[in-house]
Design a protein that fits this description.
The protein has 271 residues and is of the alpha/beta class. It has a seven-stranded mixed β-sheet. Helix 4 packs parallel to helix 6 and helix 7 crosses helix 10. The protein starts with 18 loop residues before the first strand and ends in a 7-residue tail after the last helix.
């Protein structure tokens, strides 16, 4: 069903296209998603329908977001068309809230183009309260960064922001030969489950984003130096932060405390 020739479609480098064509891996991913009739599923980047087809067979309707005009046209003329609503647009700019038409939360999945995966995850996290779960195939290194804990070299801004919003569950690893063309990197599938109630609440999400950006942009420095433009040493101490630690040694809770401290500092507008 999923041919090595990519069904006559030439993978486009600018879209970061690598098409999944390993039946065993496909069935494992679909089993992890476990689509149910009447659920509201959304696929980002359906490509040649390797995941679209088996998921659509199990549900009533599927929204798909596809930037590549040729691939969107293929889907329109496929025998899946009756079950699909095709949004021919850039997922990075797409308003996922526009898909909500009832009280069902969205279940989002996809084999994400590696060149946009990190910014797309950040974009999707801004809709976390509308989402039940997300299953994505990503570069293995990105999955490691999302799941990393403090003290790890992989731990950074993506780890903190993802773990602030979601429970992060790596599902399986996928070798390059499962794709056509084979990427130069290993891949992995991850499940993200947004919290119904956040365990730690940032008063202003822009403050959390700013603290993480400033800290991890200077990750080799101590926190007192990395965040010197935002906090004095006494301010850090009053927030329970050891200013001699490095950014990768602070927990998600520490970053939320820093963000809330920043939000409380008079005159900070959160931009």
């Amino acid at each position: 069903m999923y041919h090595n020739s990519n069904q006559g479609h030439l993978a486009r480098k600018r879209f970061g296209q690598n098409f999944l064509n390993d039946e065993h891996i496909i069935s494992q991913i679909v089993a992890a998603i476990y689509p149910q009739p009447h659920e509201h599923l959304v696929e980002v980047g359906p490509g040649l329908a390797a995941l679209t087809r088996p998921v659509a067979e199990q549900i009533d309707h599927l929204d798909v977001i596809e930037l590549d005009r040729d691939l969107a046209a293929r889907l329109r003329h496929s025998n899946l068309a009756d079950k699909l609503t095709i949004h021919e647009t850039d997922a990075l700019k797409f308003d996922f809230a526009s898909l909500k038409n009832d009280d069902k939360k969205l279940r989002i999945f996809g084999n994400l183009p590696y060149n946009i995966s990190t910014p797309l995850i950040f974009h999707l996290l801004s809709f976390a309260d509308l989402i039940s779960d997300m299953h994505f195939m990503l570069q293995k290194e990105v999955v490691q960064r999302m799941a990393a804990g403090p003290g790890s070299k992989s731990y950074g801004r993506l780890s903190v922001m993802t773990q602030y919003y979601c429970q992060v569950i790596p599902i399986l690893e996928v070798p390059p030969e499962s794709f056509k063309p084979a990427p130069k990197v290993d891949s992995a599938v991850i499940r993200l489950e947004p919290y119904q109630e956040l365990p730690y609440v940032a008063k202003d999400i822009k403050c959390l984003e700013r603290v993480c950006r400033e800290a991890f942009n200077r990750r080799r420095k101590t926190i007192r130096n990395a965040l010197s433009q935002l906090f004095s040493i006494p301010q850090l101490e009053s927030l329970g932060i050891d200013s001699s630690l490095r950014p990768e040694q602070l927990s998600v809770v520490d970053y939320v405390n820093l963000a809330n401290g920043l939000a409380d500092i008079a005159g900070f507008g959160g931009d």
